[in-house]
Amino acid sequence: MLEKFDHMAEPRKNVNVVVGDFHLHHVDTAFHRWLLDQRNEKVVFWSFLVGLIGTCILVIGSGLLDDAIPSNMPRGEVINQVINAFSTCLVLCLHPERCLHSYMLYRWQSSDQIKLREAYCKNGTKRPNERLHLMLLLVLWHLNCVGQYVLCYLNLQYTAADRPGTLVAICLVVSLGAAIGASVYHSHSPLGQDLELPHDDVERLVRI
């Protein structure tokens, strides 16, 4: 009986378990390659700003600066200014690219069309009435930037007591509403939808 079990287990002795080698320098090389890619610069900058503002809010909210900022009202104003600075820096980072895309949309050359499709169209493919959809999308993004600029001016120009609340609320609605509207429009418009091929093209692909 034991010989039978030994015979059944014998083939397993020659089985080699292959485990992938982990090399730290491969990870380091891949990280540096990712970091040097210009498309990832905004991600790094955005992550830095998120970490910075999160740290500031955590420090203020945890009470570490209670001696320096004893009153609740100045403390809330500090948090408001930190958020305002973060939002403005983020808009300043994104707005030049949006202006460039607007100029490319106006010029509408072949190279511009390819770049805009890569930036806004799913899978970088041509869409019906894409120029009109791109124009509406960029208008919303510009409204987001302009609303944040005006909001930043109000936060810097006026104190918390003198700041016009109605105008601040309008700027917040315009800025946030435009950003949300642009995101929703981008995903639900033909720009962000899967491209449906005509019936003739589908039959041709099936035959191939």
From TrEMBL:
Signal peptide: none
Keyword Membrane appears in the UniProt entry: yes
Pfam family for this entry, one: DUF2985
Superkingdom assignment: Eukaryota
Record field: transmembrane: 43-65, 132-154, 166-185
Assigned keywords, A-Z: Membrane, Transmembrane, Transmembrane helix
GO terms of biological process kind: sesquiterpene biosynthetic process
Molecular-function GO terms, alphabetical: cyclase activity
Protein name from the UniProt record: Uncharacterized protein
Organism per entry: Marchantia polymorpha (Common liverwort)
Organismal lineage: Eukaryota, Viridiplantae, Streptophyta, Embryophyta, Marchantiophyta
